[in-house]
Design a protein that fits this description.
It contains 3 helices and 6 strands, in the order H-E-H-E-H-E-E-E-E. The protein is an alpha+beta fold and 99 residues long. Strand 4 and strand 5 form a beta hairpin. The chain starts with a helix and ends in a 16-residue tail after the last strand.
Length: 99
């Protein structure tokens, strides 16, 4: 797999930005990617040493309307990547990654 096929885009929320202060970065990854793939791709893209990778699969979320049930959010796979001690990424959000 290509590096840009494994890591799709960074997650930008208040919680993920708070985790960046403790060297944990959150990204959305492809569904077939393993922890080893994510670790190697993230290390090559950002030139950092990755300590550990945790993967979370999210579920679909629905919204009830008057006549039917509408899909609000699709499933996705997120990875929380912990970097080695005192290792940072200066411009994490500014990297242009294709969808």
């Amino acid at each position: 797999m290509n590096l840009f096929d494994i890591i799709k885009k960074p997650v930008v929320t208040e919680k993920s930005q708070k985790w960046e202060l403790s060297w944990i970065y959150t990204v959305i990854i492809s569904k077939g990617a393993t922890k080893v793939d994510v670790k190697n791709a993230f290390g090559q893209l950002y030139w950092v040493k990755v300590a550990s990778v945790n993967i979370v699969k999210t579920r679909e979320k629905f919204r009830n309307t008057k006549t039917w049930v509408a899909l609000k959010k699709r499933t996705s796979v997120k990875a929380m990547i912990r970097l080695a001690w005192k290792d940072r990424i200066s411009d994490f959000i500014k990297l242009k990654i294709k969808d």
